[in-house]
Amino acid sequence: MIDFRSLTDEFKTPLYIYDLDYMTEQYNKLKEAFKGRKSIVAYAVKANSNLSVVQHFAKLGSGADCVSIGEVRRALKAGVPAYKIIFSGVGKSDDEIREAIEKDILYINVESEAELGRVEMIAKELGRVSRISIRVNPNIDPKTHPYISTGLHDNKFGVDLNSAKRMYIMANNSAHLDPVGIHFHIGSQLTELTPIRESAEIVADLVRSLATIKIDLKFFDIGGGLGIRYDDETLIEPYDYAQAILGCLTALDLTILCEPGRFLTANAGYFVSKVLYEKQNGEKKFVVVDGAMNDLLRPALYKAYHKIEAITESQGEKRAVDIVGPVCESGDFFAKDYPLPALNHNDLIVVHSAGAYGFGMGSNYNTRGRSAEVALQGGTAKLIRRRENFEDLIALEEAYLD
Ligand SMILES: *Cc1c(COP(=O)(O)O)cnc(C)c1O
C-alpha cells in the first residue's frame, strides 16, 4: 500500500509517483518469458523517460528503444550501453543520424527508402559502417485504438514487404550499411495475440527469404505494444506472447529484441492531485483538482480511461462526477461521469496507470510548471525530478526581453 497522503504532504501536488519494484517485476516477467533464447528487452524510453527510471532498467540489464537523439542521450546518460540502444522513428534528421552512427549504437531502425539513402550517405561521410534494421509494416490490424495503431499501410510507420526486400538488398550491397535486424511494431495496448502472431509470421518469412540470398539477419525485433490493465481488459500473458513469437522462428537463429514501454511502467505509476472544490452546473457535478491535462494528457488526447481513487474521510454515497483540472480547455478532464463520494478541499484524487505516457506528454500550457516525480523503492521515496517553478518556465525567454 502506498501512503499517498504522507507522500503528498512531503512532495506536494500534483505529483507523479513511480513504484520501481513493480517495474522490476514486469521486466523480470518478460525476460523470463523469453528464457532459453537470446533476448534483449529494450525499454521504450518514450513511455517514461525520467533518467532515474531509465537508469533503473539499465541496472536490470535492459537496453533502450529511442525515438529521438535526445532519448539516445538519455539512455547513455542513464547507463544503458550503446550496444543495447536502438533508434527508431519515421523522421530522423541528418544530425540525429550522424550522432547515432558516431555513438555506435546497436542499430538504426530505418523507416523508409529515402531514410536508408540518408543513413548510407552520412555513414560514408563519416567513413563508418552503420548497422541498420528495417521497420516492416505487415499491414495487420492490431485491433487497438486508431491513434495507437501503427501496423497498417494507412499509418505512417514502416515500409511494405516488397520495399523492405529491395532495401535489404541495397543495404547488403553498400560498403557503409550493415543490415543486422528486422523490426515490426503494429501498435500499442495490444490485447490480442492473433495479430502479433500473424505479423511475426509475415516478418519471419521475409527473414527466410532474405537468408536464401545470403542476407543473414541477427535481430528479430518484435517492437513493443504489450497491453496492460487500465480497466478490466483481458491481457496477453508474457509467456504466451513469447511462445507465439518463438513459434514463428523455427530453424532461425535470431536474437529477440522487444521494446516494451507501457507494459513495464504504466501500472507502476500514480498521478496524484488535490481536490480544490466541487461545483455544479445544472445537473452536472464537477470535482476540480489541481492537476490538469498539461500533467496527464491521455484522457484529453485519446479519451483514455484511467481508474481513479479518492483518498477522503467522506463516507457519502457515490455520485457520477466529472474530474477536471484548471486548464482553459473543455478537454481538460481525467474522467467523466465517474462514481465518487462527495469530496472536500484537500482530499486526494489518485489517477492509476499513470506511469507510461504521463509525465512525458506533459507541457507548460497555461504557464503551469510540470509536476514533481517521486520514485519508491524498497519502502523509501526519493525525489527524481523537482517541481518546475516560474523561473524555470521563463528561463529561455527572459534573456530576450527588451
Ligand atoms: C511506442 C513504441 C514502443 C512502445 O510501445 P508500448 O505500447 O509502450 O509498449 C515500442 N516500439 C516503438 C517503435 C514505438 O514506437
Summed up:
By secondary structure, the protein is an alpha/beta fold.
Please tell me about this protein's structure.
This protein is an alpha/beta fold and 402 residues long. The chain folds into 2 domains: 4-15 and 267-398, Lyase, Ornithine Decarboxylase, Chain A, domain 1; 34-260, Alanine racemase (TIM Barrel), CATH 3.20.20.10. Helices cover 31% and strands 24% of the residues. It is built from 12 helices and 17 strands. The strands form 2 sheets. Strands 1, 10, 11, 12, 13, 14, 15, 16 and 17 form a 9-stranded mixed sheet that branches. α7 links the parallel β6 (130-135) and β7 (177-183). It is globular and about 70 Å long. The mean pLDDT is 95. Bound molecules: pyridoxal-5'-phosphate. Pyridoxal-5'-phosphate binds at residues 44, 46-47, 65, 67, 88, 185, 188, 223-226, 259-263, 356. Pyridoxal-5'-phosphate is lined by residues 44, 46-47, 65, 67, 88, 185, 188, 223-226, 259-263, 356.
